[in-house]
Amino acid sequence: MKMDERKQRILQALILDYIATGDPVGSRTIAKKYKLGVSSATIRNEMADLEEMGLIEQPHTSAGRIPSQFGYRYYVDCLMEKKPLSEQVKKYIQDILSDKISEMEALIQLSSKLLSQLTNYTSLVMVPSLGKNKLTHIQLLPLDNNKVVLVVVLDNGHVEHRSLELPFPIRDEDVYYISQILNNNLQGLSIEKCKSGLLKTLYNELAQQKHFLNEIMEIIETALVAKDDHKVYLGGMLNMLEQPEFKDVDKVKDLLELLEEEKVLKDVLAGAGQETGIKVKIGSENPYEEMKNCSLITATYELDGKVIGTLGVLGPTRMEYSKAVSIVEFLTYALTEGLRKL
Amino acid sequence: MKMDERKQRILQALILDYIATGDPVGSRTIAKKYKLGVSSATIRNEMADLEEMGLIEQPHTSAGRIPSQFGYRYYVDCLMEKKPLSEQVKKYIQDILSDKISEMEALIQLSSKLLSQLTNYTSLVMVPSLGKNKLTHIQLLPLDNNKVVLVVVLDNGHVEHRSLELPFPIRDEDVYYISQILNNNLQGLSIEKCKSGLLKTLYNELAQQKHFLNEIMEIIETALVAKDDHKVYLGGMLNMLEQPEFKDVDKVKDLLELLEEEKVLKDVLAGAGQETGIKVKIGSENPYEEMKNCSLITATYELDGKVIGTLGVLGPTRMEYSKAVSIVEFLTYALTEGLRKL
DNA sequence: GTTAGCACTCACCTCCTTTGAGTGCTAAGT
DNA sequence: ACTTAGCACTCAAAGGAGGTGAGTGCTAAC
Lengths: 342, 342
Prior knowledge:
The structure is a homodimer. Chain A contains twelve helices and ten strands.
């Protein structure tokens, strides 16, 4: 069966109406609301064809049609017209993102919040792995008899700290001394490189000084390795509750519980891949059963021309794709700009 | 009307049954399940009295009775028998809380998680204000031409860091120099004291060196002041969805949205006061309209014999008070112990 | 003071009917 | 050959009627 223009127009009208109202759409509604110049009977015939092609379906015999997952797919790929954002909204985004933010992570977190606010869906933003970043500073500060604080500063402005408990007391001077050696040797290297054996070399240099450095090095190594990981921000999770398709607590509970697990979020975003450009995953294209009634729109943001993270919105399959895509698109742009300026 | 022992026994039976089943409890059920040695008719008479006294109420004419807010109050104050925790659970709590945690905040956060897991309700934990803690270290690290990282280490193991953007470039040596001066002057002082003019004194000392210190000091002051605040952890928010009384999305949405606001959480916990001991707020005793179907059980935890924070569980008014109270009680004890050892 | 007995209430369930939106098919119109 | 009007048909949803049962309050007897 061939997909002529009239079928396309009918499919588009049906999807737009369904997205707007949430009710199954009948032939009469389409004939009346969207002037296609044909009667409802004709539209009925065409709809029968569209159903045969798998693009729309009937929830039950005497109801109108709703788009199938493939219908949404076709719409997103071929029919959707991007709805340009108003200058006002663009300005709003840019104003907020350029408002004196000096830490990369704060900027990214803000983007997540903005994304969920603007779309009224749930936002996911993956913060880049720190593995490739270079150390600007590594510093140990004495805290107590046998406690020190390890502070790691990366060249992207990211700061991590961790308290370490040593199994033996240590003098303040020694802490400063070790700190200095660490700094001299590790400054400018990436975390990845620090991990790969370099710490051992360093150990040799310091071993001449103190016999218990071995243990300190181990702890530092663990701390560094543990920090070399992605992080995901989730925003507007409760927006899901606004959606009529999730008005039943039992239905939405599993989804919300799923979203509370960080590993899942990483999976979901990682599934979108690293290629640049906007991607849309519809219904069961997503990796989790609980998300079969959801769609995910993602894009990647960059720093120095390289993809460093992914961001996206998660909503019901019946989501406002055109609006959401525009927002994701512009926010990605604004975030990339923001990062560049940093 | 006087509250004789039989009335008490009936009220207790009714509340226990209602908490267990969630259904209104009739006279026959009480007569059968809880052997009080009297017939259902007698119980009916007593229940009429209890209703007159405002302790129980009927959802509608031909239904059983449910406890009123005052009924719960009376139960919690006079009738409730604390259910001792099994040694197993106690050990579980203590094991988890003593598992190599060296940062106060991590310990507190873990307590929150534990609390929601064990009770299946929502947990709130307020982290103490940092104002009274002493500075162990204050350190500036150069990051970039005109960016520095401020790291503040407190004597309780808490570490805060913040990136500062200076409106002018600064040399690494100067950063270290300032850092040293700050350290020498502020070490051992509480944040409160740092704020109160001391920074200005310090400014005089440094002003002889560099003219732009003024601005640095301002930034540091802002950073310190902003950090002197309470923080609240929320755990198991979605547990609310498990409760049959919140099976309607519209009912639970407002509550969940309320709980997402940190200010609200602070209010709610602050409302419980600072006196030591377990407190129970039932239904509309809570400060927010959205919580009129919830009860909150709180307790305070201590360090060095002084109250430093509050922790609690929030559940439906029909919550398992005896179990929840026991868990809150023991967890408070375990957390206080854990903090002491730190 | 307690209890058995009884009339009464009312939410809830089930069954039935009505309603209306929507369909598919057919035959007539262009 | 496509389009359309007309019609019979389907089925979810809404509304109503009747039955059920848990529970109550009252009264009279123990």
